[in-house]
């Protein structure tokens, strides 16, 4: 059984606007800082703005494919507290 390549998976993905995803999570759009067409950072001020919401779990799914020289492996850091 052959697995699809990274390129095939990426081309088959249907991206949703990040503002829509953030809105579903209760993150106000003014705290989003867009990075390119498919990424964004959430400003630290969102923590205070969301402090009244019920406690929830935070899960991040992230992946990176380094270059053939191995560059880029340390660019993704996820902290859960």
Order the strands across the largest sheet as they lie in space. 1-2
Number of strands: 2
SS field, number of helical segments: 3
- Estimate the global geometry from the Cα principal axes: elongated
- Return Rg in Å: 16 Å
Mean pLDDT: 76
N-to-C span: 39 Å
**Strand content of the residues, in percent?**
5-15%
Percent helix: 10-25%
List the secondary-structure elements in sequence, H or E.
HHEEH
Question: How is the topology of this model organized?
Answer:
Elements: H1 6-12, H2 18-24, E1 32-35, E2 39-42, H3 45-49
Antiparallel strand pairs: 1-2
Word description of this protein:
By secondary structure, the protein is an alpha+beta fold. The chain has one domain. 23% of the residues lie in helices and 10% in strands. The protein is built from three helices and two strands. A two-stranded antiparallel ribbon has the order 1-2. It is elongated, with a radius of gyration of 16 Å.
List its salient traits.
81 residues, alpha+beta, two-stranded antiparallel ribbon, 3 helices, 2 strands, 23% helix, elongated
Short précis:
The protein has 81 residues and is of the alpha+beta class.
